[in-house]
Fold this protein.
Amino acid sequence: MKKLSRKEREFLRHRGEILDVALELFSKRGFHNVTMHEIARDSEFSVGTLYKFFANKEDLYKALFLEKAEEFSLVMQEAIEKSEDEMSAIRTFIDQHIKLFMKNLRFVQLYLAETRGARFNIGMGMEKEIRQKHRVFLTKLSAVFKKGIEKGIFEDIDPYLLAIGLEGVIHAFLFNYLEDPQSHPFDTELIMNLFFGKVLRNAD
């Protein structure tokens, strides 16, 4: 990997500071209620400096979403690929999903609140890119289920549907947490138990 120059490192640091401030403002007030002047003020840069990094507010917003999507995708892929066996891969996938969500609550809230507006006002390109990244790690997760099916660990069910189903269970808990952080505590083991059928008691 090429070593970055001091100027390049400084550029990336300033860019990151601007994105952090923009995320804070967008998550509190929404995309439409924040101006580039306010982002410049709170990040302690001039408006002119902001436009050296981003063409406009929409460009900044796209960068924020796409970089977070890339971060999420890479972390989830790594969680799947570095595990020794299928059950470990799934457990790590759930664990990392929860950790990423908790670490990025402001972004998740912004995504849920603004996605439709972003699609309408900024265009379909961003949505397509995010969906592509999402499909990549879902495909990798489905490959884990496929191996487990071949080994006789899991029932012979479409592995992609199993991947979607597992993610759906995780998201149900996470979105409920957003609504009421104090209710219905959950963790990786609870999700594992629910998904893999440790709810129905054996009939006599």
Remarks:
- The CA atoms of residues 149 and 156 lie 6 Å apart.
- The chain has two domains: 1-54, 62-195.
- The chain has nine helices and no strands.
